[in-house]
UniProtKB/TrEMBL annotation:
Organism: Rubrobacter radiotolerans (Arthrobacter radiotolerans)
Protein name (Swiss-Prot/TrEMBL): carbonic anhydrase
Keyword annotations of the record: Metal-binding, Zinc
GO molecular function: carbonate dehydratase activity; zinc ion binding
Catalytic reaction annotation: hydrogencarbonate + H(+) = CO2 + H2O
Cofactor: Zn(2+)
UniProt family annotation: Belongs to the beta-class carbonic anhydrase family.
Cited function: Catalyzes the reversible hydration of carbon dioxide to form bicarbonate.
Superkingdom in the source lineage: Bacteria
Cofactor annotation comment: Binds 1 zinc ion per subunit.
E.C. number(s) listed in UniProt: 4.2.1.1
Entry-linked PANTHER family: CARBON DISULFIDE HYDROLASE, CARBONIC ANHYDRASE
InterPro entries linked: Carbonic_anhydrase (IPR001765), Carbonic_anhydrase_sf (IPR036874)
Any Pfam family the entry gives: Pro_CA
Species lineage: Bacteria, Bacillati, Actinomycetota, Rubrobacteria, Rubrobacterales
Amino acid sequence: MSETDRLLENNEAYAKEFDKSGLPSPPAKGVAVVACMDARMDVHSMLGLKEGDAHVIRNAGGVVSEDALRSLVISQRLLGTEEVILVHHTDCGMLTFKDEALKDAIEADTGERPDFPFHAFSDLEGSVRTSIERIKENPFIPRKDSVRGFVYEVETGRLREVV
Ligand SMILES: [Zn+2]
């Protein structure tokens, strides 16, 4: 039995108790969160969010990649969100490698070099600022008045704003 099979058993139990039907698709709080996929971060709990409250867009690093921008454009233009919260975090795996070294290793392994960026970074706050800038510079995202970036401390559970 795989872990996935065990998780599907959990879902059976979840569905038996399910009482969240009928929620509207547009997020109730009008917020989109872009966060790292790190397993130690429970974005809903750390911000006091519930189902239906916010879009949570996650990837390695919580970087504003092309795909994160795609999701933010849809979030704002089609589903009415107005504020963006970016969440990077301490002890992030993205601090531990370099794009070129990873590409070298993959190329050595497979004979093919990835043609996309991994967005590894060496400066945590700098990466938050870069992500904020990517949103502010994007012509397709209409609402940029409230784009704020944070570092989540995996040691304390606290969000520290990057200004
Ligand atoms: Zn991370």
